[in-house]
Protein: Phosphate transporter
Amino acid sequence: METSTSFFGTGMTTADPSMATGDVLWMLISGFIMSFMLACGLGANDVANSFATSVGAKVLTLPWACVLASIFETAGAVLLGAKVSDTIRKGIFDVGLYDGQEEVLMLGQVCALGGACIWLLLATWLKMPVSGTHSIVGAMLGFHLVVFQLEGIAWKQFGFIVGSWFLSPVMSGFVSSIIFVIYRKIVIDKENPLEPGLRVLPFFYALVLILNCISIFIDGPEMLYLHVIPVWGVMILSFGVGIITGLIVFFFLVPRWRKQLQVLSETSTYTRSDDLQEVKMDTDVKIPLSDEGIDVDIVDGKMKEENEAAVPVEQDSMISSGPSSMTSSPDTKHCTRFGKLNTGKWKRLLSKDSTEGESRQESEAWKSVKDHPVVAKLCTPLQILSAIFAAFAHGGNDVSNAIGPLVALWTIYANGNVDQKSGTPIWILVYGGAGITIGLWLLGRRVIETVGSNLTPITPSSGFSIELGAAATVLLASNIGIPISTTHCKVGSVVAIGKVRSAATVQWRLFINIIIAWIVTVPATAAISAALMAGLLRVL
Structure:
């Protein structure tokens, strides 16, 4: 069998499993370590975006957002991730150039994982939401430039990436704004939004299911045989699921919620200020959190801690004082039901208030952004459902990027050549999912604060509009061949709705910093990867 001598100075058969020797085993081990760290970075930064608006709108506590994100992001990566990881390891440049230089390609994949990992962890520490896809693409480009300079690069793909810096947030922001304006017109602006909200509820449930079913069926993996379903079959199945869901909501949930919310609608007192609504409370209530927590007094709609500034509280909150109780906000409702995850050491670890946002949120504009209690109740389950589907789709389309280079490493190690025709092993997808989960729980709070709290105040109605608009944009763009980032879409929707509601509630300086981070991502990861590659080539 013909052999070739690599830059490592070792002769190896280029198409033989005997490549699994000590000369390259260290690269495979390094690749597994770096891939796990990259998955942690993706979990802390990219994955955190999925539930950031749910936490910001206070429909979920941070611990429960992490639980749901861990489950559905990992499930999406395992069930839908093979397709995307194949693109990452094959579509950036012509891997055929490395035929006979398999060790060089393996070393490059290790450097790519390292470059993307370093950048994502740095961005997470700075609380900047950046694209995981762009990070790994830039890192792949970096090591290739060191070896082959400009030869074999898919420049068209990089042109799309540059365009997506501007296209993603604009498209998603426009779609989310349209949804929010329509919902505000037909529900929020009504003096009594209960009946208008109940009338449109089945439609929005159906729409959420239709969009997400189409996304899952079209991008489904071969292992589930979803790829054999024709387009017309996908449409029939998706619309069928959506219509059935809408009918269930109309006949069963709407009558039940009408009874539950009727009293709340009649007794709620709130004041409108232009498009912003403020809820007033006259009852004094004391909430004991836990032995390790604090006692808080609620007086006239303000929650006050000892020696601390006042923080606004919504009326529709599940607060109890002795035997009596009042109807409550999505935030404290979940705190009551799942109290053990929101008090004591969990509260300190996962629900630590952002001191950076305290002074900003004391402004009148920020304090006055509230939903009518009825609107908040109606939109809360919609937002949670949208976030769950978004996490599943995000896991399939973005999170699997962490294991793209690792799969390339494993394929070369196992087959002894650069042939990348084999599929992505499921166990590697599960391995990446474990790293994602750990990163989310350890560092996810930082980016969640930026997207969910610091850019603009988010309510259940605006949060639902953000989720639905971003999902619709990603689905539309991916099916007409425009590669866009889910991170960019989510941030664009958050800022656009904040602008529609009131420009005073958008932190424009923070948004500009985020855009700069987006633009720097590809060159930064390329530079880090190239530096690692050049250094290792010199040493080895």
Residues 277-367 form one domain.
